Amino acid sequence: MKLIRVRPSGQERTFGADELIVTKTDPRGILTYANDVFLRLSALDEDEAIGQPHNLIRHPDMPRAVFKLLWDTLRQQREIFAYVVNLAADGAHYWVFAHVTPSFDETGRVVGYHSNRRVPSRAAIAAADDLYGVLRAAERRHDRAQDAVAAGHDTLQRVLAERGRTYDELVWDISTGGRR
Amino acid sequence: MKARPETVDAAALDEAVRLVTEVCERACNGDLEARVPVISGSERAARIRIAINGLLDHVDAFVRESGAASAAAAEGRFHRRFLTQGLDGAYRAAAEQITHSNQVMSRTAAQFADAARARQALADELESAVLTVSEQVATAATEMGRSANGLADFARVAVADAERGLGTVSSLRTSSDEIRHAVDLINQVAAQTRLLALNATIEAARAGSAGRGFGVVANEVKNLANETSASSEEIMSQVNTVQQSAADAIGVLEAVTNRIREMSVLVEGIAQAVDGGHQIEDVGLSQLAEVLRAEVSRFVSTIRAS
């Protein structure tokens, strides 16, 4: 089933601090489970979500470099945190603080990925939005996808080098509102 | 075709019980990937499904958070804390306990890091102090070596001067011997003159009044001879004094020369201690300072690496 690209409406949706958005995918990123909070925020029915690639809810404002970093980290079987803006099927968007981890079977083999998402603070959203604006600007100067990813990645590394932080540390700096 | 609602509901509930039981059994065995799939046809079955899946999601989240947060703390990534958001009640209480434990670990790690930094600083200070000391010792050793060489030269010159002094005093002794010889000769002449004067006086007496004038002259000659003899005695006494003084001077000069020679040996000892001797194991002060510096460098490197 081929989905028509949804046009962002600019309308923001949010969710409760006590709620968790949960999805599971197989190793290729195909959705195998989505909880009720995910379906509500994404304005999707369960049968519209399950079996679809996770980039079903990808928002055009998300820099490509962030997803590359996410997949590179997961392939090393490590957890990753990221601020992500998602696009609902009705054009609304919602910001999440995503924590993505590999799922292992008893033999230690990766059987899929699991994502828990929590609602971020306004300050964290503002900081992430600023950072992604910078990365997007770098990526949009390139036509080829791989050049864009490389440009976004370089820009991210430069920002981190200037601040003397790792990506992980930067994400946690934002999440604690600079409380350190 | 449409079945009657209560029949559908009962069948759906049976199916829900079967699926929920299966998923719970898997979850009991630690498989948190399992979720209850869609159960159509019953509102109550759908609610049970959401409740069970919600429970599993929270257990899953707690398990993932506790594993990851502990692993991060063990790796020293203390910025990664336990995310308690979305977890309530007992989950949150346990999460806060884990967070507290990680903070304690973080403090301990920080103390270790402080101790390591203090050790590094100590190593730096030690190295710098030893470097300064060894440089100063090397400078002092060079200075001492130069002074010792100067002293040795000085001692050589002093010995040569004293030897020249000995020569001078010895020649004085020879000269006084010659003087004594000359005075002996004068004494002999004076004695013969006195004898001559006596004979002249006798001859004058025999001549009577004609020899009176001659007798006066003979008496004068005798007086001159006596005076000459007295002066000679005086000169001999002076010469003896000079000779005694020259012997004393020779003794003193010889003693001084011996002292300076002994001092030269001591100065040579100092020079050897500073510059090292001719044997390979006879290392000097400069080399010792270098050995000390090298040893401390090795020690400090070990401390820095540990």
From TrEMBL, chain A:
It comes from the Bacteria. Residues 26-77 form the PAS domain. InterPro entries: PAS (IPR000014), PAS-like_dom_sf (IPR035965), PAS_fold_3 (IPR013655). Pfam families: PAS_3. This is PAS domain S-box-containing protein.
TrEMBL record, chain B:
One of its GO terms (cellular component) is membrane. SMART domains: MA. One of its GO terms (molecular function) is transmembrane signaling receptor activity. InterPro entries: Chemotax_Me-accpt_rcpt, MCPsignal_dom. Keywords: Transducer. PANTHER family: LYSOZYME-LIKE PROTEIN-RELATED (PTHR32089:SF112), METHYL-ACCEPTING CHEMOTAXIS PROTEIN MCPB (PTHR32089). Belongs to the methyl-accepting chemotaxis (MCP) protein family. This is Methyl-accepting chemotaxis protein (MCP) signaling protein. It comes from Actinoplanes italicus.
